[in-house]
Write a structure and sequence with these properties.
about 325 residues; alpha/beta; D-Maltodextrin-Binding Protein, domain 2; 10 strands; about 45% helix; globular
Length: about 325
């Protein structure tokens, strides 16, 4: 009798496991880690997408801001999380294309530590100078840099940040020299540009658009493949004569490596629906972010190309975090 009971119990274990494995995902709330402080562009995009995904998945998607080390802290938290789809990351160009070349000891591998879900949005960069400056075009700015190498200055939010590397990318692509002036944040750099203490700022469009629209800054070019609807008269970098000067930030949804393909598919579907939602698209467009929504494979290919593209820019800048 005991042996029969044991056999019955043993036989029931795999059956119970199979039933559990067949349970639809998700069965509890999800956590979306934003590796930057609340209120920034990545946080805003994450909250928009999380709210829509909650409706599709039937479970809350809770935002967890884990700022630190240029986004590396939050990224590492997700890389070390269980591969079950309940913890995902809103990654950026900084966390997965710039940091791998910038940090001597990154705690995660940008490719092997994660499973790509979907590219959510892309945000273009822009080059601005004071409205009262003599430079009317990107070509004129490059000519001034060639005439006096190193004389012109550009400010950024700090060494190794997106705006710093945009400036270094332009130096490289245009074959010119200008001097980087790092600040503790984007706001002080912008203030010094407006005050005339530096000559140029490279940054994302949303950060600078209000000052362009107010007439305080002049936009010389956007570093996107096409012109932007919010700045229809501003040429692209290619139109200005610098076709290789392309720089965009982006947001992508990632899960820990080895997350089951069925879970990735479910997350991808929810992310795609979120990006396609009219309210989300309208809000992103207001932020000058281009909503995307890609397949997992497309995101994987895109991330690999971005890592390859930004690595030489970081090396040329001399920036390094030990």
């Amino acid at each position: 009798m005991l042996r029969r009971q044991f056999l019955f119990t043993s036989a029931a274990v795999p059956l119970s496991s199979a039933v559990k494995a067949a349970e639809p995902f998700p069965q509890r709330p999800l956590k979306m880690v934003v590796p930057f402080a609340a209120g920034g562009g990545t946080d805003i995009v994450a909250r928009l997408v999380a709210a829509e995904m909650s409706g599709t998945l039937g479970q809350p998607v809770v935002i967890d801001n884990r700022a630190g080390a240029g986004g590396s802290l939050g990224s590492d938290i997700v890389a070390r999380s269980p591969a079950d789809g309940y913890t995902v990351l809103m990654a950026t160009v900084s966390t997965h294309a710039i940091n791998p070349a910038l940090h001597a000891k990154l705690p995660y591998d940008p490719i092997r530590s994660f499973a790509p879900v979907s590219l959510i949005a892309r945000v273009g960069g822009i080059v601005v100078v004071q409205a009262s400056s003599a430079w009317q075009s990107l070509g004129q700015l490059a000519q001034a840099m060639r005439k006096d190498p190193g004389k012109l200055t550009f400010g950024s939010q700090g060494v190794g940040g997106f705006s710093h590397l945009m400036g270094e990318m332009f130096n490289s692509q245009a074959g010119v020299q200008s001097t980087h002036v790092p600040y503790k944040g984007a706001a002080p750099a912008l203030q010094d540009l407006l005050a005339g203490n530096i000559d140029i700022v490279y940054d994302t469009v949303p950060a600078l658009l209000p000052h362009i629209q107010s007439g305080k800054l002049r936009a010389l070019a956007v570093t996107t493949p096409q012109r932007l609807s919010s700045l229809p008269v501003t040429p692209t970098s290619a139109e200005a004569g610098f076709p290789a000067f392309l720089a965009e930030t982006w947001n992508a949804l990632l899960a820990p490596a080895n997350t089951p393909s069925s879970v990735i598919s479910r997350l991808n579907d929810a992310a795609a629906r979120a990006v396609q939602a009219s309210a989300v698209r309208k809000r992103m467009e207001d932020l000058n972010a281009d909503p995307v929504g890609s397949s997992s494979a497309e995101l994987g290919q895109f991330m690999a190309s971005e890592i390859k593209r930004w690595a030489p820019v970081v090396r040329a800048s001399g920036a390094r975090v030990e």
